[in-house]
Amino acid sequence: MVDKQLLLNKITDEYPELRWKESKYITNGWDYDIVVLDDRIVFRFPKGQLRVGNLMDEANLLMALGERISLPIPQYTFIPPRRDFAGYSVIKGEQFKPWRYKKLSGTEKADAAKKLALFITELHATPTSLVKRYHIEAKDEPKLLREIRVNAKRYVYPRISHYSRAIIEDFFKTIEEEMVGHKPNRVLIHQDLLPDNILLRSGSISGIIDFSDCKHGDPAYDFAGLWNYGPKFVRSVYRRYGGKKDNRLLYRSKLIYQLGPIFIMTSSFLGYPCTFKQGYRMFKKRFLL
């Protein structure tokens, strides 16, 4: 973990005119350490050298998307000459956790579905030229599934029951057949459209954050995280979605949603900021065990 004061010193060195009373240090992200000043400015610091270039591509992509996306998204206005970190003005809102969704009125839920559908539609309509210009990688499903399966056998299987192993093995056969065998239309995807990255303010979606995992891939990925709010909400968003549809898209999105806890369980043994217990609890819930 990088010392918080070291990061604050970096900000001060590059932006001596900035003043703040309070700072918040967030270290539980997978790719970035984050410093928030007075709930006003977010600074992101890559955890690895490879992420530095990715952050600049993300910043430039978001600048281009700002003219295409209706919802507020991060716009990096603090980019120092060394480009080893960057900052943007806070987008106001609370994380759109499932418990907050349940408290919304019917009208507010419909409005949330409408706004998310428009966001996904606009994002997926991004020209391929921008995808190439900002070095957005293509999603490699065969490689991803192969790596998760190998790591599951090595780290997860020894810690779970034979019954759970059998369920995961059957699941891998299903998702490999569906994801590898199917060749969907590829679009720019957020790929991390989870409750933590969807913001809600006064009962309305107020913005989308964290585009660091953007890929060129299956549009189903951007519906996967919406299963956290239940199938009715997923279908409501999908009905309003204006991108190219296919009759297997929602099925694939559900499989990706179920893959999540297996990925978390394996990642907990690879140095990522998650725990096996967290992943296993999600696994039992998503597989109805």
UniProtKB/TrEMBL annotation:
<dbReference type="Pfam" id="PF01636">
    <property type="entry name" value="APH"/>
</dbReference>
<feature type="transmembrane region" description="Helical">
    <location>
        <begin position="255"/>
        <end position="276"/>
    </location>
</feature>
<protein>
    <recommendedName>
        <fullName>Aminoglycoside phosphotransferase domain-containing protein</fullName>
    </recommendedName>
</protein>
<keyword id="KW-0472">Membrane</keyword>
<feature type="domain" description="Aminoglycoside phosphotransferase">
    <location>
        <begin position="27"/>
        <end position="241"/>
    </location>
</feature>
<keyword id="KW-0812">Transmembrane</keyword>
<keyword id="KW-1133">Transmembrane helix</keyword>
<dbReference type="InterPro" id="IPR051678">
    <property type="entry name" value="AGP_Transferase"/>
</dbReference>
<dbReference type="InterPro" id="IPR002575">
    <property type="entry name" value="Aminoglycoside_PTrfase"/>
</dbReference>
<dbReference type="InterPro" id="IPR011009">
    <property type="entry name" value="Kinase-like_dom_sf"/>
</dbReference>
